[in-house]
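Support request from a user on the community tier.

User writes: "When I paste my structure tokens into the form, the page sometimes reloads and wipes my input. The last time it worked, I copied everything first. Here is what I submitted, just in case something in the input itself triggers the reload:"
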């Protein structure tokens, strides 16, 4: 009697969770996007490439009949955060806040949860890194205690969802998404599969029940959000919280925002009592001198849509070394070297026997080309040992041919300078919007670096064109 043949067993197909690349055998690194740990067995439906029709949750409607009032942004109670988000927190929206350890992510979200609760709206704060008692101690220190603020210390996804069902919050904070794990998924918390499962479950609950959700995300040593790249695609908003350990200033900027602009920043001061909003941070980047000193120049940089005054300082010291030093702090060193070369070639300033040090004040990171002319003026002032006039701001991008190019938002920058009491400005020729600048600001337009240096009364006669 013939033996029945055993049914063929379909060979597994492995697919990358990031880009969808498939292979017949498991590999640790995707051959397409080069991501590690993202290749896993593909589901039968994914291998078949088709899905059967299913019942819809809600029927499709004309866009004019879609109700939008429930999706309007609600003020969070923190003005600087509302500025970055484009008006406030959106019900049902999911926000991912990333930043280096110790920068103040948990402090910011605890303050947000407390202010949300003070408006009579229930809030649930789930901590996977601290106990509820530790969070309570930090809340007492920062004054973030309220009866409508609920705390839970959980690391299990199922328990987190149960807390959401019991508390029924309008705002959910998860600190952090890398510490929460699901028992139904293989891998350790923080792994690619676990993070994807946790984020998907939390986002689904937030969308279905209209809960504003904020997730804390860890970062890698390169500053990118840890975990699968798909996490940033799933959420509605990605915020980056930045700050130097040596400075109390913290900057909040949007990397992705479905509800508002991505060119706004929020400024905070990390004090003993928590994070304090800084609606006018200009004074943090400008030093205070009793008398004008050589080697200093004030410029106006744009952080998002916000003009900020910043001071550039330069120091030129004679040296006998065959290769003079060029050291920069807070500025692009390669761009500073280019500006010094332009100063030498077109203005006749000999820096071949000088060590030149350049820096920004207050830990500001100035990478805009608009600060080029301020760096050049500061270096010329330092070499000539002459001071620039008080109340002067300088704007402009410097080219290798010695020309000074216009920069964007010139009118906004100059209005901010005039508001803070500055009386004179050197700007590129053909700058737009100068008619909207207050008359109290005396404007000098220059076409090249020689005209810019000679426009300084204190430097005239010491720096001659080549």
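"...and here is what came back when it finally went through:"
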């Amino acid at each position: 009697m013939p033996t029945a043949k055993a049914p063929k067993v379909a060979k597994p197909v492995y697919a990358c969770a990031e880009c969808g690349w498939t292979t017949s055998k498991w590999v640790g690194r995707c051959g397409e996007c080069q991501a590690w740990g993202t290749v896993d067995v593909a589901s039968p439906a994914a291998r078949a490439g088709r899905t059967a029709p299913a019942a819809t949750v809600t029927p499709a409607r004309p866009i004019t009949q879609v109700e939008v009032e429930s999706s309007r942004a609600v003020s969070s109670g923190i003005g600087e955060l509302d500025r970055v988000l484009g008006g406030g927190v959106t019900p049902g929206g999911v926000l991912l806040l990333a930043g280096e350890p110790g920068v103040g992510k948990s402090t910011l979200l605890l303050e947000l949860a407390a202010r949300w609760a003070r408006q009579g709206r229930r809030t649930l704060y789930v901590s996977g890194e601290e106990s509820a008692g530790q969070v309570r101690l930090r809340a007492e220190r920062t004054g973030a205690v309220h009866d409508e603020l609920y705390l839970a210390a959980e690391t299990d996804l199922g328990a987190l969802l149960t807390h959401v069902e019991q508390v029924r919050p309008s705002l959910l904070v998860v600190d952090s998404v890398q510490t929460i794990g699901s028992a139904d998924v293989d891998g350790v918390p923080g792994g690619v599969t676990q993070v994807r499962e946790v984020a998907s479950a939390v986002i689904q609950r937030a969308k279905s029940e209209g809960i504003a959700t904020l997730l804390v995300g860890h970062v890698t040593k390169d500053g990118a959000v840890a975990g699968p790249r798909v996490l940033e695609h799933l959420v509605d908003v990605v915020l980056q919280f930045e700050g130097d350990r040596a400075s109390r200033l913290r900057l909040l900027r949007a990397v992705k925002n479905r509800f508002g602009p991505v060119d706004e920043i929020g400024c905070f001061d990390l004090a003993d009592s928590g994070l304090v909003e800084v609606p006018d941070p200009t004074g943090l980047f400008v030093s205070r001198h009793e008398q004008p000193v050589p080697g200093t120049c004030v410029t106006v940089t744009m952080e998002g849509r916000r003009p900020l005054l910043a001071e550039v300082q330069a120091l030129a010291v004679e040296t006998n070394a065959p290769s003079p030093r060029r050291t920069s702090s807070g500025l692009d060193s390669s761009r500073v070297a280019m500006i010094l070369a332009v100063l030498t070639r077109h203005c006749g300033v000999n820096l071949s026997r000088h060590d030149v040090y350049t820096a920004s004040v207050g830990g500001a990171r100035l990478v805009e080309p608009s600060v080029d002319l301020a760096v050049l003026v500061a270096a010329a002032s330092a070499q000539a040992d002459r001071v620039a006039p008080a109340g002067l701001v300088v704007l402009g991008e410097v080219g290798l041919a010695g020309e000074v190019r216009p920069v964007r938002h010139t009118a906004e920058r100059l209005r901010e300078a005039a508001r803070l009491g500055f009386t004179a400005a050197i700007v590129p020729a053909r700058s737009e919007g100068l008619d909207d600048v207050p008359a109290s600001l005396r404007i000098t337009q220059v076409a090249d670096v020689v005209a810019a240096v000679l426009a300084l009364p204190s430097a005239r006669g010491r720096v001659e064109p080549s």
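Agent notes: The reload is a front-end session timeout and is unrelated to the input. Residues 72-279 form a domain with the Rossmann fold fold (CATH 3.40.50.300). The CA atoms of residues 122 and 417 lie 43 Å apart. Escalated to web team.
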